[in-house]
C-alpha cells in the first residue's frame, strides 16, 4: 500500500461534530466508457461529509479492512478538525470505521492531537494483532504508531518513535503481514529543512526514509536520499515477501529527482532491513517532474508470476493538453509495459492509483483505478476512472459533481461475492475565502454491463 501526506491547513471544529455526520443515498451519476465489450456502471451509493467544518481533513488517508467473516468491507479513515490557517494544529483527531456497504459509522476513537502540524494520518491494515479473527489498523500520529482494534476501535498498543520529529514526516507505509504473528514494518519518509531564507524557501534539505520494525520497536535501517529537494519519499510502497527483488524491499518515489540536469523523477527500491539499493529507474526528460508521485502493486500481467507496478506521473504533459500519465511497469525490471494518459485539457491524472485482483468476485477482470484530481483553487470536479488490465482499456468513470475539494485524495477497491465497490476520499485543506465545501468520503458501486452498440 502506498501513501502520500503533507502538512496542510485543517478545519474548524463543530462542537457536535459526530452529530454533524451526514449520510445519505444520492442519485447516481452514471458514465459508461465508449467502445466495444463491457463497461462498468459506477453509482454513488452513499456519502459521508461534515458540512459544519469550515476547514477539515476527512478521507485523505484510508485503509480497507473486512468484517470478522471477511465478507464485507470496512473503511477506516481519519478526521482532523481545528482552527483554520495553513500549518494549523488540529484540535481534534478521530479515527472512524465506516460500513463499506452503507457508510454507517461502526466505531469512533478520539486520539490525542499531535504537537506539530500533520495534514493526514497514514492508516493501514496491520493484520490480526489481538487474535480476535479481525484485521486491525495501524495509525501514524506524529511520531507515535498506534494499533487499533479493527472490530471495536479499542487501542491495542502504541510505540513512540524516538529521535523522529513528528512535524517532518512526509509519508508512511506499513507492510501488510501475510501470516499470523509476522512482524509489521513501517517506512517513514522524513524531510529535514535547514537554513530558511524566507517562508517556504530553504538553503538545504536532507531527505531520508527510516524503516521501523513496529513489532520489536526498533529502527532497522535509515536510507538517505542523497539528492536535495528531490521529494525523496513522496510515495512509499512495501514489498515484504522478497520475491520481486530477492529480499524484502521498500520502494521510494522521488518525483523531483534530477538526472543529467533534467528533472525526471525516480523510483528506487531498497532492502527493507539493510537499506541497500536494489533497483533504480528514472522518468524521461520530456515528461517533466512527477514520476513516482504515486505507486500501487498490480497483479501479474506478463506471466512471470511476479506482480507489476503502477507509477503515477501527474506532471507529465500529454497530447490532450491535460497533465498526467500512469505507467504500467514490470515489477522486477521496472520496464514500461503500457501507458495511460490524461484525456482532457486542464485535468491532472495519476495523483492516486489503486488496483485489485478480484478473486471470487462477480467481476472477473483485473482492474486499475486512477484518480483525476480536482483542485480546491480551481474548483474543478475530480473523477475516478477504472481500467481493465492488462490492456488498460477504460471501462468506467465517475465524475464528482461537487467542486472545491481535493478529490480523490485516497482510493480503495473492494471486490467480493456481492460485486465491486470503490471508496474515494476528498478533503478541503486550502485556506480559501468563502470556501465551505465539506470534505467527504463516497462509496461507489460498480455493475458490469455490455456496452450499448454505437457508443
In short:
The chain is an all-beta fold. It has a single domain, classed as Methylamine Dehydrogenase, Chain H, CATH 2.130.10.130. It is 0% helix and 50% strand.
Characterise this structure.
- This protein is mostly beta strands and 455 residues long.
- It has a five-stranded antiparallel sheet with strand order 1-3-32-31-30, with no helix packed on it.
- Mean pLDDT is 76; it is low at 1-36, 195-204, 357-362 and 429-435.
- The protein contains no helices and 32 strands.
- The two termini are 35 Å apart.
- Helix content is 0%, strand content 50%.
- It has strands spanning 22-24, 31-32, 38-49, 56-66, 73-82, 90-99, 105-111, 123-125, 137-141, 144-148, 155-160, 169-174, 185-198, 201-213, 218-224, 235-239, 249-254, 258-259, 262-263, 266-271, 277-282, 294-298, 308-317, 323-329, 336-341, 348-356, 367-373, 383-388, 393-399, 406-416, 419-427, 440-450.
- A hairpin with a 5-residue loop joins strand 20 and strand 21.
- The protein has a single domain (22-450), classed as Integrin alpha, N-terminal (Methylamine Dehydrogenase, Chain H).
Amino acid at each position: 500500500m502506498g501513501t502520500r501526506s503533507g502538512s496542510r491547513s485543517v478545519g474548524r471544529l463543530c462542537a457536535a461534530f459526530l452529530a454533524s455526520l451526514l449520510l445519505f443515498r444520492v442519485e447516481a451519476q452514471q458514465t459508461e466508457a465508449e467502445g466495444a465489450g463491457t463497461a462498468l456502471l459506477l453509482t454513488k451509493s452513499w456519502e459521508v461529509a461534515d458540512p459544519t467544518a469550515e476547514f477539515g481533513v476527512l478521507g485523505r488517508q484510508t485503509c480497507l479492512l473486512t468484517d470478522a467473516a471477511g465478507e464485507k468491507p470496512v473503511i477506516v479513515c481519519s478526521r482532523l478538525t481545528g482552527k483554520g490557517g495553513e500549518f494549523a494544529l488540529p484540535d481534534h483527531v478521530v479515527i472512524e470505521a465506516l460500513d463499506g456497504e452503507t457508510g454507517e459509522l461502526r466505531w469512533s476513537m478520539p486520539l490525542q492531537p499531535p504537537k506539530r502540524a500533520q495534514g493526514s494520518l497514514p492508516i493501514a491494515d496491520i493484520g490480526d494483532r489481538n487474535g480476535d479473527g479481525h484485521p486491525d489498523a495501524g495509525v501514524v500520529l506524529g511520531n507515535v504508531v498506534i494499533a487499533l482494534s479493527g472490530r471495536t476501535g479499542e487501542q491495542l498498543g502504541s510505540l513512540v518513535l524516538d529521535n523522529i520529529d513528528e512535524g517532518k514526516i512526509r509519508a508512511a507505509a506499513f507492510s501488510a503481514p501475510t501470516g499470523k504473528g509476522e512482524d509489521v514494518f513501517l517506512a517513514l519518509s522524513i524531510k529535514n529543512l535547514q537554513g530558511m531564507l524566507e517562508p517556504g524557501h530553504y538553503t538545504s534539505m536532507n531527505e531520508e526514509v527510516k524503516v521501523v520494525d513496529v513489532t520489536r520497536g526498533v529502527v532497522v535501517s535509515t536510507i538517505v536520499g542523497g539528492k536535495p529537494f528531490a521529494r525523496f519519499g513522496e510515495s512509499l510502497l512495501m514489498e515484504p515477501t522478497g520475491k520481486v527483488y530477492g529480499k524484502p524491499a521498500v520502494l521510494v518515489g522521488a518525483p523531483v529527482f534530477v538526472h543529467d540536469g533534467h528533472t525526471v523523477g525516480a523510483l528506487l527500491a531498497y532492502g527493507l532491513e539493510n537499506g541497500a539499493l536494489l533497483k533504480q529507474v528514472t522518468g524521461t526528460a520530456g515528461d517533466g517532474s512527477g514520476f513516482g508521485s504515486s505507486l500501487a502493486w498490480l497483479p501479474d500481467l506478463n506471466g512471470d508470476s511476479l506482480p507489476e507496478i503502477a507509477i503515477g506521473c501527474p506532471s507529465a504533459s500529454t497530447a490532450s493538453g491535460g497533465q498526467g500519465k500512469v505507467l504500467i511497469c514490470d515489477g522486477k525490471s521496472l520496464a514500461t509495459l503500457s501507458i495511460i494518459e490524461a484525456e482532457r485539457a486542464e485535468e491532472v491524472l495519476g495523483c492516486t492509483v489503486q488496483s485489485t485482483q478480484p478473486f471470487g468476485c462477480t467481476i472477473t477482470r483485473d482492474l486499475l483505478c486512477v484518480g483525476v484530481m480536482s483542485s480546491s483553487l480551481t474548483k474543478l470536479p475530480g473523477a475516478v476512472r477504472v481500467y481493465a488490465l492488462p490492456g488498460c482499456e477504460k471501462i468506467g468513470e465517475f465524475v464528482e459533481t461537487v467542486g472545491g475539494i481535493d478529490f480523490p485524495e485516497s482510493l480503495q477497491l473492494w471486490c467480493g461475492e456481492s460485486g465491486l465497490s470503490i471508496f474515494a476520499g476528498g478533503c478541503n485543506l486550502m485556506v480559501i475565502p468563502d470556501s465551505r465545501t465539506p470534505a467527504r468520503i463516497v462509496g461507489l458501486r460498480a455493475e458490469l454491463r455490455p456496452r450499448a452498440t454505437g457508443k
